Amino acid sequence: MTKPAHRLTPAPPTGELVDSPPFPAAARRELANPVQRKNLHHAMTTIRDKRARVVAERPDWEQMRVAGEEIKDRTLRHLDHYLLQLEESLTRAGTTVHWASDAEEANRIIVGLVRDALRDEPPQVDPEGRQVPPEVVKVKSMATQEIEMNEALEAAGIAAWETDLAELIVQLGHDRPSHFLVPAIHRNRAEVREIFLDEMADYGRPAPDDLDTEPAHLAGAARLHLREKFLRAKVAISGANFAVAETGTLCVVESEGNGRMCLTLPETLISVVGIEKVVPTFADLEVFLQLLPRSSTAERMNPYTSLWTGPTPGDGPQQMHVVLLDNGRTTVLADDFGRTALRCIRCSACLNVCPVYEKVGGHAYGSVYPGPIGAVLTPQLRGTASAVDRSLPYASSLCGACFDVCPVRIDIPKMLVHMRGKVVEAKKADRMPHSEAGVMRTASWMMADHRRWGAAMKGSGLAGRVLGSRFDHFGTLPWPASKWTNARDVQMLPTESFRDWWARERGDGDQPAGDPADRGRDPSTDAHRASDQRAHGSTEQPEGEQR
Predict the structure, then answer these.
(1) How far apart are alpha carbons 24 and 26 in whole angstroms?
(2) Which of 23-37, 352-366, 518-532 has the lowest mean pLDDT?
(3) pLDDT class for 478, splitting at 50, 70, 90?
(4) CA 58 vs CA 55, 136, 288, 301: distances in Å
(5) Any bridge partners for residue 474, and if so which?
(6) Which of 206, 335, 375, 443 is the 20 to 30 Å CA partner of 413?
(7) Is the pLDDT score of 508 beyond 70?
(8) InterPro entries given for it (predicted)?
(9) How far apart are CA 490 and CA 351, in angstroms?
(10) The three-state (H, E, C) secondary structure of 194-220, written as one string
(11) 520: confidence class by pLDDT, cuts 50, 70, 90
(12) What is the pLDDT of residues 446-455, one digit of tens each?
């Protein structure tokens, strides 16, 4: 196979995700899209309400969350053991196992396997008589997106076709996914119709000329377009929701049936599986196959749950390969606290409740993994060298809603703070000075001497009196303060400091006026004591009464 002179599949947006602008800049860009904001608000509200109803049906929901957490934690503590057991089980079942340390190695393995599988295949033509390039069909997989597998195959002269409806919309729309579960959640039906009418004819069966925006008709157009690809495909590529170490069984859950077509019709199946997807025993699936559908699609069980344990003679793919992918996961595993992000089962529940994600969508995160979990997982997988990765741990209000809904109890708010600490340490290691560090050093110098601090407070009060006569708050300020004020209204400086108030009300010095016996006492202690007495009842006894 030689590299084609033109693209075989629709081109995605230019540039690498790691080179995306920092989250604040990307968020401003996305906020300027009112159609997307409306789409997201409608979708998020619907999904949240449905999830709440199906979760409420289970009185043991919290116990199931704890069980999922404990299974994942046990697996991560002994991941080396379970991965070797998985390799043995897969091999025993007739599946060939490949290990990939990074994206480059994984893509090299996958391209080689596809070339080997298609080497002796004769050229094919589509129903319109056009020659079909070498191709594969795909089950929805975030791991393959993470390693940019589609582009690696494109460069090798192989067309990789998405078969999930939302992924197909994204691919034909020259777009990127913006959500774990619903990659085209930022698109509405009118946009989907236009994409199908404009693009389908260039890559296979065209959309009907009279296509409207009815969901059933849009799905029907996609079904007809994909059917010819399913029927002629010799190679399929999938991910896996879970990989069972005990039996070598892989599991994929989905809602449309396209995954089942990919897993049964082709002759060769290649599955790209992150090393964190392993679970110890088949019985462990009982927990996750209840947690995942309720947390993701708000269903009691997924419409299609496919499990396979190696090839079966005369039934389904006869050549099966599993590529076990690291790509930074062992680095995450080395962090005793950060490793809890590897519990993630990609349900998207944290995205669906996040107020930040609902406003800006997934493209603002510059990562395959958007939302709260992406804000902590991406900087661990990719490091904190890029501007976007350093900004992601701050892409949150720390409201805690993500932890409340996470089916495996990942404490994302605490992890965000943990990752912010790592970003600060990374900045300290830079040779270039940072404005934040300079501001903190200046504040430390000022607060270290009461006279300097007092002078600063008097200056602040004077500024408050002068500016407060004209403004009630600060708007956007020049750089470097613009980094804070571009997205926040800052209250006007007070006209009087606490020190001045104290001197006016209690005395003219550091010592409060009044009873000499009270001098030197910390007024905050009295305030706390009074507060405790109001909350719990006074502990003082009436005069003359014995305890």
Answers:
(1) 6
(2) 518-532
(3) confident
(4) 6, 40, 14, 13
(5) 490
(6) 443
(7) no
(8) 4Fe4S_Fe-S-bd, 4Fe4S_Fe_S_CS, FTHF_cligase-like_sf, Helical_ferredxn, LUD_dom, LutB/LldF, NagB/RpiA_transferase-like
(9) 29
(10) HHHHHHHHHHCCCCCCCCCCCHHHHHH
(11) very low
(12) 899 989 988 9
Tens digit of each residue's pLDDT (9 = 90 or more) over 83-99: 999 999 999 999 999 99
| The token pair that represents 63 in the structure block | 């116990």
Token pair for 85:
């057991």
What is the C-alpha separation between 466 and 461, in angstroms, rounded?
Answer: 9
Q: Per the structure block, which two tokens stand in for 238?
A: 């999938």
The residues near 157 (Cβ < 8 Å, ≥ 6 apart) are 1, 2, 3, 4, 8, 133, 134
Give me 265's structure tokens: 């019709």
CA 50 to CA 36: how far, in whole Å? Answer: 21
> Taking Cα atoms as reference points, which of 381, 373, 377, 369 lies closest to residue 350?
373
Contact 22, 327 (CB under 8 A): no
Cis check: omega of the bond before 480, within 30 degrees of 0: yes
The mean pLDDT of the chain is: 90
pLDDT score at 428: 81
Question: Which amino acid makes up residue 530?
Answer: A
Burial class (CB in 10 A: 0-12, 13-18, 19+), 339: buried
**CA distance linking residue 479 with residue 52, whole number of Å:** 44
CA distance 87 to 110: 18
The predicted structure's pLDDT at residue 510: 52
